[in-house]
Amino acid sequence: EVQLVESGGGLVQPGRSLRLSCAASGFIFGDYAMHWVRQAPGKGLEWVSGITWNSGSIVYADSVKGRFTISRDNAKKILYLQMNSLRTEDTALFYCAKDKYADSSGYIVDWGQGTLVTVSS
Amino acid sequence: IVMTQSPATLSVSPGERATLSCRASQGISSNLAWYQQKPGQAPRLLLYGASTRATGVPARFSGSGSGTEFTLTISSLQSEDFAVYYCQQYNNWPQTFGQGTKVEI
């Protein structure tokens, strides 16, 4: 059974940084592309970033480009999201998600339960 | 690619048919997925390839379309189907979601 467990969320002041982690189990982590998707309170889903199996392709939404960095450690089976220069509009539940395939041609098949990031002074 | 869903809210009675629309701002072939989200839960994959049901998804869910126009149909709404539905294009990165359609009683 695929399990994705996010951690690292919390309350942070605007302009500060936070690093999210996603521990994966139940599948061969290094064989799949991975994503971060967020959902602001009461709002819809927003794709944040994706990374292919070997980190060869990394893409960001325009809203986070230059501030967020996605990375992965295939040996440890962990996906990361480093978030810098946080803004109040980054407040959201952040989901870690597994792709169907290793490259950028697939769709999201599995989701974690999310970790809440609140940016407020 | 901007994904636009309509309507924002759909009021339907149990047993009735629901039709949800999704439009892409440019052609995405059949690289479209539909997700269902219930309150307090993570999204769940319903359909991919515009029309292929994911494992365990009931046959009352069907999808159609290609290019820029897509439809999700729920043939006979059950109580557990009242939720928010999102379309998502995966033709290109960055992937993008529609804003969602809430199906309510």
Low-confidence stretches of chain A: none
Look at the structure and give the mean pLDDT of chain A.
97
Could you say which structural class the secondary elements and strand pairing of chain B correspond to? Answer: mainly beta
The biggest chain-chain interface is:
A-B, 25 and 22 residues
Shape of chain A: globular
Query: Tally of extended strands of chain A?
Result: 11
The largest β sheet of chain B comes out as:
7 strands, mixed
Distance between the ends of chain A: 40 Å
Uncertain residue ranges of chain B: none
Structural class of chain A: mainly beta
Number of DSSP helices of chain A?
A: 0
Judging from the principal axes of the Cα atoms, what is the shape of chain B? globular
Distance between the termini of chain B: 31 Å
Written as H for each helix and E for each strand, in order along the chain, the element string of chain A is EEEEEEEEEEE
Query: What fraction, in percent, of the residue positions of chain A are helical?
Result: under 10%
Indicate the proportion of strand residues of chain B.
over 45%
Rg estimate of chain B, integer Å: 13 Å
Order of helices and strands of chain B: EEEEEEEEEEE
Q: Assembly state here? A: heterodimer
